[in-house]
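Trying the structure run again after the queue cleared.
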Amino acid sequence: RIAPGDSLNIAEVIGCCRGNEVKERIALLHMKWRQEVRAYDEFIRGKASKDADFTTGDPEIDRSAVWARALIAANAHYLDGNIVPMPCPAEYNFFFTHDLLLTNLGAVNFDLPRVKSNLLYVASLAKDSVIPHAYYWRDDGFKTEYCEPENWNHLWFVIVSGSYLRHSLDDSTGQVLFPFIEKSVQAILTRLRPDGLMYAYRPDWWDIGHIEGPRTYLTALAVRALREYLFISSFLHRQNSRLVEYEKTADAMQSALLTHLWDAKEDYLTNYNAGKKDYHFYAGSLIASVYGLMDQEHATELVATAEKQLVDDRIGIRIAMPPDFSSDSVVKEFKFAGDEAGPPYSYANGGVWPHGNAWFAMALKDIGKLDESYDFVRRTMTIDGVAKSPNGLPAMYEYRSSDPNSPSFGTIDKPSFLWAGGMYLQVLYRLLAIDENPWNISIRNELPSRCNSVSCSMTFGGLRKLVIRSSSNMPGPLRVDGEVLPSRILPLGLRDKISWESTPTENAAPVLVKANAIVQSVTYESARKQFRCTIYSFDGHKTQFVVDGENPPKRFSVNGRVLKGLKTSRTGKGRTSTTIEFPGSSELQNITLDY
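Done. Tokens:
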């Protein structure tokens, strides 16, 4: 191929040319080919280091960010009339929805056109609004595998769509995607049982095996996806009677995780198969911590158990242990097709995967272990760290062999893997730049001790610039195009602002730090000592937001009506945290706090 739609057929050239004409024609085609190669090279280099940036001053962290952006730009193949993301270069011509979605969890932070195009491509392959699992050529034509009701692609599709809308504020694309989002939510909920847990035939995140039972991974993802659906419906102004019901369902599912799946003996979230407890430890359980579905105590215990049972400090976290999924008894129990899980310590049978490393790094961050998370990322996810490790290469990969007693320990499979790059970038943004709940985006106020500052591209209604200087435990105000904003959350009313900055401050004024609603505006009038915030969600939503200040407010009101329910506590930093709860609305709500 020279370019899509342009092929070089030597026999055809020779058939219509003679003598020097053949040489001239081939020379022209070769020149065109070289021009295409140069254009492609410029495109990749632009995506890697010109269109976006992420700079910390740590060369190993920073060059891996460039590498990752180049990797996800380059891993694309021509498939049935489209250039689409592919897992790895020239390995196989299969499109997988899962690979696209997990990659875009990182790409949404700096490349909105890519994410929009990818989501619309997934929707274009859908049948009756059911999204595809895979699309590929098979002997007699192109084939589409559609997602079964329990397929985790439904959940990732909703989660990535919600993230795209928070970053892009692109409601027109949201309206196009909404029927597919709604269908995925309806499909996955057919796997919800009366105990509040999601049941599936596949273990953890795999697409192999066939034995039914409640799944931690699927339940945690479903909680997040339902809350994403609440946000998406509110953002697109699609109020309906199911929203309150779905919110209650998500809350009940979150509670059921600890009630039914927490193993107090192992301090870990477990799974069951046909009524029998699964004795394996799965990295997928970390999703409950990554998405904030656990209290601090349980999340800390979960991470500690994962570190003990799954982590090898030299290469990362094994996706499951013990690695006995190829034994006759386990193959029979799970109804695997032979050793499709892979031999011990390989592939899904105990191999180290990039998404597992990403989940562990984010879980460490979420329990406050920023330095440990940073060091883990640097050691197991950067190209330098991977290259320095046993049997390492300067590569982002599909998985690594993890048997410490084997000479192949650390051996890498598929050394240029699409979603390894995307997951690395997602971790960088979550650890060093922004936080993201289902309702809004906020700027981090605390960095690991080894990182003094961050300068990076950020998407919010377009491509913006974010600078975080030094580390501070106090959530002070932001500066937006030079103006002070008393909020860590990005309000929709400032969607056109270009420059966002966070610096250490001794600020005494109140600052909005958390909210589970769409924030339109935030202001503080110092003369009247009055803090105002405009929000919206859906009718009956259990709205909660948190304001940090030197002193607690004297009262608060919603649309002029004074309400009770202020909860205040001292943070130990000479500050007061105030939590406010009230019923939400699909109409704008004007919140006022008087100090």
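The longest strand covers residues 518-525. Worth checking whether this holds up in the mutant runs.
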